[in-house]
Amino acid sequence: MPELPEVEALVHHLRENAVGRTVHRVDVASLQVLKTFDPPWTALHGQEVVAAHRHGKHLDLEVADGLHLVVHLARAGWLRWADTMSAPPPKQGRGPLALRVHLGPPGQGPGFDLTEAGTKKGLAAWIVRDPQVIASVARLGPDALGITRTQLEDLFAKRTERLKTSLTDQSLIAGIGNAYSDEIMHMARLSPYATTGKLNDEQLDHLHEAMLTTLTDAVARSVGQDAARLKGEKRSGLRVHARTGLPCPICGDTVREVSFADKAFQYCPTCQTGGKPLADRRLSRLLK
Formamidopyrimidine-DNA glycosylase catalytic domain: from which residue to which, for each copy (predicted)? Predict the structure, then answer.
């Protein structure tokens, strides 16, 4: 799933390449991706792109009359930029393409596709005058890149859920997903199962530093990269996430995994849990 650093890099790419251009045409290949119908997507036609923003993991393209095309890429969505877009309108319901934005005469100018792989569709797009009318934007907590140590302590006070859950709760802290939460906890040497509200001052110090360092470094690696290379750049910077069975780059212990119904997280026992492997419910069921 694209998280804060990748979305920030995509927004930066749009600022550099889309702002100042005119939306000539929007093609909708999947009607289910549009979560609003008024204003219609045709309201974007003829409008100059004036800004690109990020709200947590949402991407926001603003045009001259105050309309915003807001996109959440979900688990398997992506933005694919092209210097020349195909002119013929795409057929609906065919392949991964959901929406196409022409920022020049079709067949002559640049633009981008919003695509989504797989059969489980979560990619969402809204056309609104105020992004705050979108429920998933309105509920966002403070952005993870701007959160202070004091804010973090206040947000975590009296919370009883596991740290992994807190870090990925967008209403608590915006922008962190499954991958970077694993990386942050590993850098902070904290267990994913630690109780959020019981972290002491030293642990909060380490967590805050790890959060800012991990995300800032990831943004620095990602911004300026071609959109097609961002996924590979993300993988190259990960130390524990998606590295099950490989040695931890810090201590050499084997990176372990805990799996749930539709996702998994990775951690290092030596660095994070005092050498004790966490219970994996999937493995426990197999052993019964």
Answer: 2-94
Q: What are the residue ranges of CATH 1.10.8.50 in the chain? A: 149-287
Instruction: Pull the structure tokens for residue 59.
Output: 């991407």
**Cis amide prior to 40 (ω within 30 degrees):** no
- Angle between the 4-17 and 201-222 helix axes, to the nearest 10 degrees? 40
Using one digit for the tens of pLDDT, what is the confidence trace for 192-232? Answer: 999 999 999 999 999 999 999 999 999 998 887 766 666 66
pTM over 0.70: yes
Helices within the chain (DSSP H only): 4-17, 135-138, 149-156, 163-167, 178-188, 201-222, 230-236, 269-272, 281-287
Helix axes 201-222, 178-188, angle to 10 degrees: 130
Report pLDDT digits (tens) over 76-115: 999 999 999 999 999 887 789 999 999 999 999 999 999 9
Residues near 53 by Cβ (< 8 Å), separated by ≥ 6?
11, 59, 60, 62, 68, 131
Domain 149-287 falls under CATH 1.10.8.50: yes
Q: Which CATH architecture has domain 4-138?
A: Alpha-Beta Barrel (3.20)
Tally of helices (H runs) and strands (E runs) in the chain: 9, 10
CB of 240 closer than 8 Å to CB of 191: no
Tokens standing for residue 281: 């419910």
